[in-house]
């Protein structure tokens, strides 16, 4: 499994023009809204 999973769209504006950010490892830069963000998988939820 890859250490960096590719997001398909920006969580802020929904655009798909994303590039890996050079500022931080694991961060992504959205060229549409100029935000830099990172995603983290916490775990699976348990249905009650």
Key terms for this structure?
Insertion element protein, three-stranded antiparallel beta sheet, 48 residues, mainly beta
Query: What's the N-to-C terminus distance?
Result: 30 Å
SSE-based structural type: mainly beta
Radius of gyration: 13 Å
Number of domains: 1
Morphology? globular
- On the 0 to 100 scale, the average pLDDT is 88
Oligomer state of the chains in this structure: single chain
Percent of sequence in beta strands = 15-25%
**Unreliable stretches covering 5 or more consecutive residues:** none
- Main pleated-sheet profile: 3 strands, antiparallel
Protein name: Insertion element protein
Organism: Thermasporomyces composti
Describe this structure in words.
It comes from Thermasporomyces composti. This is Insertion element protein. With 48 residues, the protein is mainly β. The protein has a 3-stranded antiparallel sheet with strand order 1-2-3, with no helix packed on it. The protein has one domain. It contains no helices and 3 strands. Strand 1 and strand 2 form a beta hairpin.
Describe the structure concisely.
This protein is mainly beta and 48 residues long.
SSE map:
Blueprint (H helix, E strand, L loop, with lengths): L17 E3 L6 E4 L5 E3 L10
Antiparallel strand pairs: 1-2, 2-3
Protein name: Insertion element protein
